[in-house]
Design goal:
With 427 residues, the chain is of the alpha+beta class. It has a single domain, classed as Anthranilate synthase, CATH 3.60.120.10. 31% of the residues lie in helices and 32% in strands. It is built from eleven helices and 20 strands. Helix 5 packs across helix 11 and helix 6 packs across helix 11. It is globular and about 65 Å long.
Protein backbone atom coordinates (compact mmCIF):
# COMPACT_ATOMS: atom_id res chain seq x y z
CA UNK A 1 0.00 0.00 0.00
CA UNK A 2 1.37 3.41 -0.94
CA UNK A 3 1.80 6.20 1.59
CA UNK A 4 0.56 9.77 1.26
CA UNK A 5 1.98 12.63 3.35
CA UNK A 6 0.63 16.07 4.32
CA UNK A 7 2.02 18.97 6.34
CA UNK A 8 0.44 19.90 9.67
CA UNK A 9 0.01 23.36 11.18
CA UNK A 10 -1.09 22.20 14.63
CA UNK A 11 0.23 18.73 15.48
CA UNK A 12 -1.43 18.35 18.88
CA UNK A 13 -4.82 19.40 17.54
CA UNK A 14 -4.58 16.95 14.64
CA UNK A 15 -3.60 14.11 17.00
CA UNK A 16 -6.78 14.66 19.02
CA UNK A 17 -9.00 14.90 15.96
CA UNK A 18 -7.45 11.77 14.45
CA UNK A 19 -7.99 9.81 17.64
CA UNK A 20 -11.60 11.02 17.89
CA UNK A 21 -12.14 9.84 14.30
CA UNK A 22 -10.53 6.46 15.13
CA UNK A 23 -12.69 5.98 18.21
CA UNK A 24 -15.66 4.98 16.02
CA UNK A 25 -13.91 1.65 15.34
CA UNK A 26 -13.87 -1.37 17.65
CA UNK A 27 -10.11 -1.84 17.56
CA UNK A 28 -7.42 0.82 17.72
CA UNK A 29 -3.99 1.50 19.14
CA UNK A 30 -2.60 5.01 19.56
CA UNK A 31 1.05 5.51 20.57
CA UNK A 32 2.22 9.05 21.34
CA UNK A 33 5.77 10.01 22.29
CA UNK A 34 4.70 13.58 23.15
CA UNK A 35 7.70 15.32 21.66
CA UNK A 36 10.33 13.04 23.17
CA UNK A 37 11.18 11.85 19.66
CA UNK A 38 14.45 13.84 19.79
CA UNK A 39 15.73 11.42 22.39
CA UNK A 40 18.36 8.98 21.14
CA UNK A 41 16.18 5.89 21.02
CA UNK A 42 12.88 7.34 19.82
CA UNK A 43 11.65 6.54 16.29
CA UNK A 44 8.10 7.84 15.85
CA UNK A 45 6.28 10.84 17.26
CA UNK A 46 2.79 9.38 16.83
CA UNK A 47 1.30 6.14 15.51
CA UNK A 48 -2.42 5.49 15.14
CA UNK A 49 -3.45 1.99 14.04
CA UNK A 50 -7.16 1.53 13.33
CA UNK A 51 -9.51 -1.37 12.53
CA UNK A 52 -8.28 -4.97 12.49
CA UNK A 53 -7.73 -6.61 9.10
CA UNK A 54 -6.19 -9.66 10.75
CA UNK A 55 -5.84 -10.45 14.45
CA UNK A 56 -4.46 -12.88 17.00
CA UNK A 57 -6.07 -13.45 20.39
CA UNK A 58 -4.48 -15.69 23.01
CA UNK A 59 -6.06 -19.10 23.54
CA UNK A 60 -5.64 -20.88 26.92
CA UNK A 61 -4.91 -24.16 25.13
CA UNK A 62 -2.04 -22.73 23.03
CA UNK A 63 1.26 -21.16 24.07
CA UNK A 64 0.78 -17.47 23.34
CA UNK A 65 4.36 -16.71 22.32
CA UNK A 66 4.50 -19.65 19.91
CA UNK A 67 1.13 -18.59 18.48
CA UNK A 68 2.43 -15.04 18.01
CA UNK A 69 5.58 -16.27 16.28
CA UNK A 70 3.53 -18.47 13.92
CA UNK A 71 1.01 -15.69 13.25
CA UNK A 72 3.79 -13.24 12.35
CA UNK A 73 5.55 -15.73 10.08
CA UNK A 74 6.08 -14.30 6.59
CA UNK A 75 4.31 -11.05 7.56
CA UNK A 76 6.34 -7.97 6.67
CA UNK A 77 3.69 -5.64 8.04
CA UNK A 78 2.75 -3.45 10.99
CA UNK A 79 1.24 -5.29 13.96
CA UNK A 80 0.02 -3.58 17.14
CA UNK A 81 -0.98 -5.21 20.40
CA UNK A 82 -0.27 -6.04 24.00
CA UNK A 83 1.25 -8.58 26.36
CA UNK A 84 -0.50 -9.00 29.74
CA UNK A 85 1.46 -9.57 32.92
CA UNK A 86 -0.20 -12.95 33.46
CA UNK A 87 1.65 -14.43 30.50
CA UNK A 88 4.17 -15.21 33.23
CA UNK A 89 2.10 -18.35 33.85
CA UNK A 90 3.03 -19.62 30.38
CA UNK A 91 6.70 -18.76 30.81
CA UNK A 92 7.18 -20.20 34.31
CA UNK A 93 5.25 -22.58 36.53
CA UNK A 94 3.17 -19.83 38.10
CA UNK A 95 -0.52 -19.05 38.49
CA UNK A 96 -2.95 -16.16 38.91
CA UNK A 97 -5.88 -16.86 41.19
CA UNK A 98 -7.28 -13.38 41.79
CA UNK A 99 -10.60 -12.38 40.24
CA UNK A 100 -10.39 -10.80 36.78
CA UNK A 101 -12.73 -7.80 36.59
CA UNK A 102 -11.34 -6.39 33.32
CA UNK A 103 -11.27 -9.59 31.25
CA UNK A 104 -8.72 -8.74 28.59
CA UNK A 105 -7.02 -11.63 26.80
CA UNK A 106 -3.45 -12.39 27.84
CA UNK A 107 -2.17 -11.42 24.40
CA UNK A 108 -3.71 -9.61 21.45
CA UNK A 109 -2.24 -8.32 18.16
CA UNK A 110 -3.77 -6.97 14.98
CA UNK A 111 -2.79 -5.74 11.53
CA UNK A 112 -4.49 -2.36 10.99
CA UNK A 113 -6.58 -1.29 8.03
CA UNK A 114 -5.53 2.33 8.60
CA UNK A 115 -2.15 3.52 9.84
CA UNK A 116 -1.58 7.21 10.53
CA UNK A 117 1.99 8.29 11.32
CA UNK A 118 3.26 11.68 12.47
CA UNK A 119 6.91 12.68 12.45
CA UNK A 120 7.93 16.30 12.95
CA UNK A 121 5.18 18.30 11.17
CA UNK A 122 4.27 15.62 8.61
CA UNK A 123 1.36 13.18 8.77
CA UNK A 124 1.31 10.06 6.60
CA UNK A 125 -1.55 7.72 5.68
CA UNK A 126 -1.18 4.16 4.40
CA UNK A 127 -3.78 4.83 1.70
CA UNK A 128 -3.65 5.89 -1.93
CA UNK A 129 -3.72 9.58 -2.76
CA UNK A 130 -7.51 10.09 -3.24
CA UNK A 131 -8.36 8.10 -0.09
CA UNK A 132 -5.74 9.98 1.92
CA UNK A 133 -7.02 13.39 0.84
CA UNK A 134 -10.57 12.43 1.82
CA UNK A 135 -9.45 11.05 5.17
CA UNK A 136 -7.21 14.05 5.90
CA UNK A 137 -10.09 16.42 5.21
CA UNK A 138 -12.54 14.31 7.21
CA UNK A 139 -10.27 14.36 10.27
CA UNK A 140 -9.63 18.10 10.02
CA UNK A 141 -13.38 18.77 10.01
CA UNK A 142 -13.95 16.93 13.29
CA UNK A 143 -15.00 19.20 16.14
CA UNK A 144 -13.60 18.82 19.64
CA UNK A 145 -15.41 19.75 22.81
CA UNK A 146 -14.19 23.02 24.28
CA UNK A 147 -15.66 22.26 27.70
CA UNK A 148 -13.73 19.63 29.67
CA UNK A 149 -16.01 16.97 31.15
CA UNK A 150 -16.58 16.74 34.89
CA UNK A 151 -16.54 13.42 36.73
CA UNK A 152 -16.85 12.47 40.35
CA UNK A 153 -16.05 8.79 40.64
CA UNK A 154 -15.78 7.00 43.95
CA UNK A 155 -12.65 4.88 44.03
CA UNK A 156 -12.15 2.05 46.50
CA UNK A 157 -8.82 0.51 47.45
CA UNK A 158 -8.03 -3.20 47.60
CA UNK A 159 -5.68 -2.31 50.47
CA UNK A 160 -6.39 -0.28 53.57
CA UNK A 161 -3.44 1.82 54.62
CA UNK A 162 -2.83 -0.39 57.65
CA UNK A 163 -3.02 -3.57 55.58
CA UNK A 164 -0.53 -2.19 53.08
CA UNK A 165 1.95 -1.20 55.81
CA UNK A 166 1.68 -4.66 57.32
CA UNK A 167 2.26 -6.27 53.93
CA UNK A 168 5.38 -4.19 53.32
CA UNK A 169 6.79 -5.39 56.63
CA UNK A 170 6.01 -9.01 55.71
CA UNK A 171 7.88 -8.58 52.43
CA UNK A 172 10.84 -7.12 54.31
CA UNK A 173 10.87 -10.30 56.40
CA UNK A 174 11.16 -12.29 53.16
CA UNK A 175 14.08 -10.07 52.18
CA UNK A 176 15.77 -10.66 55.54
CA UNK A 177 15.29 -14.39 55.04
CA UNK A 178 16.97 -14.20 51.63
CA UNK A 179 13.86 -15.09 49.58
CA UNK A 180 14.09 -11.94 47.44
CA UNK A 181 16.21 -8.80 47.27
CA UNK A 182 13.48 -6.55 45.92
CA UNK A 183 9.77 -6.92 45.20
CA UNK A 184 7.36 -4.67 43.33
CA UNK A 185 4.11 -4.50 45.31
CA UNK A 186 1.02 -3.08 43.59
CA UNK A 187 -2.34 -1.79 44.75
CA UNK A 188 -5.57 -1.43 42.82
CA UNK A 189 -8.00 1.45 43.10
CA UNK A 190 -11.29 0.59 41.42
CA UNK A 191 -14.68 2.03 40.63
CA UNK A 192 -17.95 0.18 40.05
CA UNK A 193 -21.02 1.29 38.08
CA UNK A 194 -18.83 3.89 36.36
CA UNK A 195 -19.89 5.90 33.33
CA UNK A 196 -17.00 7.80 31.76
CA UNK A 197 -15.70 8.91 28.36
CA UNK A 198 -12.31 7.26 28.12
CA UNK A 199 -11.41 9.37 25.11
CA UNK A 200 -11.94 12.59 27.08
CA UNK A 201 -10.12 11.07 30.04
CA UNK A 202 -7.18 10.21 27.78
CA UNK A 203 -7.04 13.75 26.40
CA UNK A 204 -6.90 15.11 29.96
CA UNK A 205 -4.34 12.52 31.07
CA UNK A 206 -2.07 13.09 28.10
CA UNK A 207 -2.21 16.85 28.54
CA UNK A 208 -1.31 16.50 32.22
CA UNK A 209 1.45 13.90 31.99
CA UNK A 210 3.00 14.30 28.51
CA UNK A 211 4.74 10.95 28.91
CA UNK A 212 6.98 9.48 26.16
CA UNK A 213 5.30 6.05 25.99
CA UNK A 214 1.68 7.11 26.11
CA UNK A 215 -0.90 4.75 24.62
CA UNK A 216 -4.63 4.52 24.06
CA UNK A 217 -5.86 1.02 23.22
CA UNK A 218 -9.39 -0.08 22.41
CA UNK A 219 -10.27 -3.77 22.37
CA UNK A 220 -14.01 -4.28 21.98
CA UNK A 221 -15.59 -2.95 25.21
CA UNK A 222 -12.28 -2.55 27.05
CA UNK A 223 -10.34 0.71 26.81
CA UNK A 224 -6.85 1.44 28.11
CA UNK A 225 -5.52 4.97 28.70
CA UNK A 226 -1.84 4.87 29.60
CA UNK A 227 0.64 7.68 30.34
CA UNK A 228 3.74 5.54 30.75
CA UNK A 229 7.20 7.08 31.09
CA UNK A 230 8.92 3.69 30.73
CA UNK A 231 10.16 1.63 27.81
CA UNK A 232 10.18 -2.14 28.25
CA UNK A 233 12.07 -3.30 25.17
CA UNK A 234 12.92 -1.96 21.72
CA UNK A 235 14.54 -3.68 18.75
CA UNK A 236 16.11 -1.68 15.94
CA UNK A 237 18.04 -3.82 13.52
CA UNK A 238 20.05 -6.19 15.66
CA UNK A 239 20.17 -3.83 18.66
CA UNK A 240 17.97 -4.41 21.72
CA UNK A 241 17.35 -1.59 24.22
CA UNK A 242 15.69 -1.73 27.65
CA UNK A 243 15.18 1.33 29.88
CA UNK A 244 13.99 0.30 33.34
CA UNK A 245 12.72 2.88 35.83
CA UNK A 246 13.30 2.63 39.54
CA UNK A 247 13.29 5.80 41.61
CA UNK A 248 10.58 8.48 41.69
CA UNK A 249 10.24 11.94 43.22
CA UNK A 250 7.76 14.77 42.65
CA UNK A 251 8.50 17.93 40.67
CA UNK A 252 9.32 21.06 42.65
CA UNK A 253 7.16 24.16 42.80
CA UNK A 254 10.14 26.38 41.89
CA UNK A 255 13.31 25.88 39.83
CA UNK A 256 15.37 25.81 43.01
CA UNK A 257 13.17 23.17 44.67
CA UNK A 258 13.09 21.17 41.45
CA UNK A 259 16.89 21.04 41.27
CA UNK A 260 17.09 20.10 44.95
CA UNK A 261 14.64 17.23 44.44
CA UNK A 262 16.54 15.98 41.39
CA UNK A 263 19.76 15.95 43.36
CA UNK A 264 18.04 14.23 46.26
CA UNK A 265 16.76 11.51 43.96
CA UNK A 266 20.10 11.03 42.21
CA UNK A 267 22.00 10.65 45.50
CA UNK A 268 19.41 8.46 47.25
CA UNK A 269 21.17 5.23 48.20
CA UNK A 270 17.86 3.37 48.41
CA UNK A 271 16.59 4.48 44.99
CA UNK A 272 19.94 3.83 43.31
CA UNK A 273 20.14 0.38 44.88
CA UNK A 274 16.65 -0.45 43.55
CA UNK A 275 17.61 0.71 40.07
CA UNK A 276 20.94 -1.12 39.97
CA UNK A 277 19.32 -4.39 41.10
CA UNK A 278 16.88 -4.22 38.21
CA UNK A 279 19.65 -3.30 35.75
CA UNK A 280 21.46 -6.50 36.78
CA UNK A 281 18.25 -8.46 36.26
CA UNK A 282 17.73 -6.96 32.78
CA UNK A 283 21.33 -7.75 31.82
CA UNK A 284 20.78 -11.34 32.90
CA UNK A 285 17.47 -11.56 30.97
CA UNK A 286 19.17 -10.46 27.75
CA UNK A 287 22.15 -12.80 28.08
CA UNK A 288 20.58 -15.81 26.39
CA UNK A 289 19.96 -14.09 23.05
CA UNK A 290 22.72 -11.46 23.03
CA UNK A 291 26.09 -11.77 21.37
CA UNK A 292 28.70 -12.42 24.04
CA UNK A 293 30.20 -9.17 25.32
CA UNK A 294 27.60 -6.98 23.61
CA UNK A 295 25.51 -6.15 26.71
CA UNK A 296 26.22 -2.58 27.82
CA UNK A 297 24.83 -0.23 30.44
CA UNK A 298 24.72 2.97 28.39
CA UNK A 299 23.31 5.04 31.23
CA UNK A 300 23.08 4.15 34.91
CA UNK A 301 20.61 5.95 37.18
CA UNK A 302 20.14 8.98 34.98
CA UNK A 303 17.66 11.56 36.26
CA UNK A 304 14.92 12.12 33.66
CA UNK A 305 12.34 14.85 34.21
CA UNK A 306 8.70 14.58 33.18
CA UNK A 307 5.79 16.94 33.62
CA UNK A 308 4.78 15.71 37.09
CA UNK A 309 7.72 13.64 38.40
CA UNK A 310 11.44 12.93 38.11
CA UNK A 311 12.60 9.32 37.57
CA UNK A 312 15.86 7.42 37.73
CA UNK A 313 16.21 5.62 34.40
CA UNK A 314 18.96 3.29 33.21
CA UNK A 315 19.57 2.19 29.62
CA UNK A 316 20.76 -1.35 28.86
CA UNK A 317 21.56 -2.42 25.30
CA UNK A 318 22.66 -5.61 23.59
CA UNK A 319 23.18 -7.06 20.12
CA UNK A 320 20.84 -9.88 19.19
CA UNK A 321 22.53 -13.08 18.00
CA UNK A 322 19.90 -14.12 15.49
CA UNK A 323 16.99 -12.33 13.82
CA UNK A 324 14.89 -15.44 14.50
CA UNK A 325 15.14 -14.77 18.26
CA UNK A 326 12.83 -11.72 18.09
CA UNK A 327 9.91 -13.26 19.98
CA UNK A 328 12.12 -15.34 22.28
CA UNK A 329 14.00 -12.30 23.57
CA UNK A 330 10.64 -10.79 24.57
CA UNK A 331 9.48 -14.03 26.16
CA UNK A 332 12.69 -14.52 28.14
CA UNK A 333 12.68 -10.99 29.55
CA UNK A 334 8.95 -10.83 30.31
CA UNK A 335 7.48 -9.59 32.59
CA UNK A 336 9.93 -6.72 32.91
CA UNK A 337 12.08 -6.79 36.04
CA UNK A 338 11.09 -3.28 37.09
CA UNK A 339 7.57 -4.60 37.75
CA UNK A 340 8.51 -7.85 39.49
CA UNK A 341 11.66 -7.65 41.57
CA UNK A 342 14.57 -10.04 41.97
CA UNK A 343 15.00 -12.95 41.79
CA UNK A 344 12.15 -12.73 39.33
CA UNK A 345 10.38 -16.08 39.79
CA UNK A 346 10.32 -15.94 43.58
CA UNK A 347 9.24 -12.30 43.44
CA UNK A 348 6.30 -13.22 41.20
CA UNK A 349 5.28 -16.02 43.57
CA UNK A 350 5.21 -13.58 46.47
CA UNK A 351 3.40 -10.96 44.38
CA UNK A 352 0.61 -13.47 43.82
CA UNK A 353 0.54 -14.23 47.54
CA UNK A 354 0.39 -10.65 48.82
CA UNK A 355 -1.38 -8.61 46.15
CA UNK A 356 -5.17 -8.47 46.12
CA UNK A 357 -5.90 -8.01 42.39
CA UNK A 358 -5.11 -9.70 39.13
CA UNK A 359 -2.71 -7.43 37.31
CA UNK A 360 -3.83 -8.32 33.80
CA UNK A 361 -2.51 -5.71 31.37
CA UNK A 362 -1.15 -3.53 34.18
CA UNK A 363 2.65 -4.03 34.28
CA UNK A 364 2.34 -5.73 30.92
CA UNK A 365 3.18 -3.98 27.67
CA UNK A 366 1.63 -2.19 24.67
CA UNK A 367 3.46 -1.53 21.42
CA UNK A 368 4.16 -2.61 17.86
CA UNK A 369 6.12 -4.72 15.43
CA UNK A 370 7.05 -2.84 12.26
CA UNK A 371 8.07 -4.01 8.79
CA UNK A 372 11.67 -5.20 8.95
CA UNK A 373 11.01 -7.07 12.20
CA UNK A 374 11.68 -4.15 14.53
CA UNK A 375 9.56 -3.49 17.63
CA UNK A 376 9.02 -1.11 20.53
CA UNK A 377 6.99 -1.81 23.69
CA UNK A 378 6.24 0.24 26.79
CA UNK A 379 5.58 -0.72 30.41
CA UNK A 380 1.89 -0.34 31.27
CA UNK A 381 1.95 1.91 34.32
CA UNK A 382 0.16 5.22 35.14
CA UNK A 383 -2.87 3.67 33.50
CA UNK A 384 -6.66 3.65 33.67
CA UNK A 385 -8.39 0.52 32.32
CA UNK A 386 -12.14 0.50 31.80
CA UNK A 387 -14.49 -2.35 30.99
CA UNK A 388 -17.35 -0.42 29.43
CA UNK A 389 -19.76 -3.36 29.41
CA UNK A 390 -19.19 -4.09 33.10
CA UNK A 391 -18.80 -0.37 33.96
CA UNK A 392 -15.70 -1.30 35.96
CA UNK A 393 -12.71 1.04 36.17
CA UNK A 394 -9.26 0.09 37.44
CA UNK A 395 -6.14 2.04 38.40
CA UNK A 396 -3.12 0.15 39.71
CA UNK A 397 0.19 1.49 40.95
CA UNK A 398 3.21 -0.07 42.60
CA UNK A 399 6.60 0.45 44.15
CA UNK A 400 9.74 -1.51 44.86
CA UNK A 401 10.12 -2.88 48.37
CA UNK A 402 13.71 -3.35 49.58
CA UNK A 403 15.30 -3.91 52.97
CA UNK A 404 15.62 -0.12 53.33
CA UNK A 405 11.96 0.55 52.58
CA UNK A 406 10.00 2.62 55.05
CA UNK A 407 6.36 1.42 54.85
CA UNK A 408 4.96 4.94 55.31
CA UNK A 409 7.19 6.31 52.54
CA UNK A 410 6.18 3.47 50.23
CA UNK A 411 2.51 4.30 50.86
CA UNK A 412 3.20 7.95 50.05
CA UNK A 413 5.03 7.02 46.83
CA UNK A 414 2.12 4.81 45.81
CA UNK A 415 -0.26 7.73 46.22
CA UNK A 416 2.09 10.06 44.34
CA UNK A 417 2.06 7.72 41.33
CA UNK A 418 -1.74 7.52 41.22
CA UNK A 419 -2.37 11.16 42.18
CA UNK A 420 -2.57 12.51 38.62
CA UNK A 421 -5.03 9.80 37.57
CA UNK A 422 -7.21 10.33 40.62
CA UNK A 423 -7.35 14.08 40.08
CA UNK A 424 -8.44 13.65 36.47
CA UNK A 425 -11.35 11.33 37.27
CA UNK A 426 -12.37 13.43 40.27
CA UNK A 427 -12.10 16.89 38.76
Amino acid sequence: METTTFSLENIDLFKKKALKWANQFGTLCCLDSNGYRHKEYATYEFLLAVDALNELTSNPSVNSFEALENWRLNKNSWQFGFFSYDLKNEIERLESSHADFIQLPSLYFFEPRYLITINENKVSFNRNYPESIALFEQINQIELSEVPPKWKIELKSRYTREDYLTTVNKIKEHILNGDVYELNLCRELYGESVDISMLELFFALNETAKAPFTSFFKYKDIIVACASPERYLKKKGSKIISQPIKGTIKRGESDEEDEFLKSDLYHSEKERAENIMIVDLVRNDLTKYAISGSIKVEELCGVHSFKTVHHLISTVSATLKHESDTINCIKDSFPMGSMTGAPKIKAMELIEKYEKSKRGLFSGSVGYFSPGNNFDFNVVIRTVIYNQAQRYLSIQSGGAITIDSDPECEWDELNLKSEVLQKIINN
